[in-house]
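Data card: per-record layout.
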Amino acid sequence: MTIKVNRAVLAHRLFTGISRRHLSCMAQELAQPWQATVEGRRHEVRGGARKRAAGAGARHRLVFVDRLVATLIHPRHDLPHSVLGLLFGVDRSTITRAVGEIRTLLPERGCAVPGRPSLRLKTLADVFAYAQAEGIELRLDATEIQVRRPPASRGGRRAFVSGKKKQNTMKATVVADHRGRTLWADALRPGRMHDATAARNEGIAVCFQHFPDVEVLLDDGYLGLRRDHPGQAITPPRKPNKSALPDVHERWERDRHWHSSDRITVEHALADHKRWRQLIRWTHRRDRLPDTYRAIAGLVSDRTATT
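The structure for this 307-residue chain is written out next.
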């Protein structure tokens, strides 16, 4: 028995995670790059340029908008390709090919600039330049996503074991502004790597050097960055000695509470990312997780940049 759901219903925000207006804008933005990618792949298979006129040949059973919708539903609800094929009335292999084509385009978009969604931030240097130009105080934090452990026959199994989560994870570093809007998400690192080390590997020290007016709020996991970049990397104040006066302890508790209240917005940004089911627990190939996370971060930034 064939089950075919109305494709207009599948484009609803409950399925895709984005509004219909946002979906329409994305379709206009990605249609031409997708067409160029498909044509380029066909040229490679054929071994040369096309010989037929444009528009000739077989028609796609799954048009571009439906391919985009299927690609968004996949990370939002983590539905198998066979289930998506059943919903769209096509074969599983068609969904797999469609998701593979669109998935390569989404991470390249970057994150939207608040108030100017047409501008995109793609690197950490872009974020620091934007923060210095607009006088924005950044918030940076890391989150871990559970992944599959490498087989026993392969090396590097311990690299993914997180001492904090006691699980096999990969770690993503995210930058947000004072209102919890995502500005940047990096390529993921193995869970065993320290938070500060992951930030250093992304070149945050060079960004601090070239943008001396930018301040970044951090948690206690980045004390090394505060030592190397005083006045720019701001972590919670250290706890005073037990022999200190009561006023000193009260001031410390008050300052720590203010710092936590200012930094909590990046936690809200991470919570927005984790609403996409695939980021709760990643059950697919680990090398595809970085692109998926960057794609989801870009989609979330599109929504928050207009609010």
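Known properties of this structure: The chain has a mean pLDDT of 88. The first strand starts at residue 111 and ends at 113.

See the next section for split statistics.
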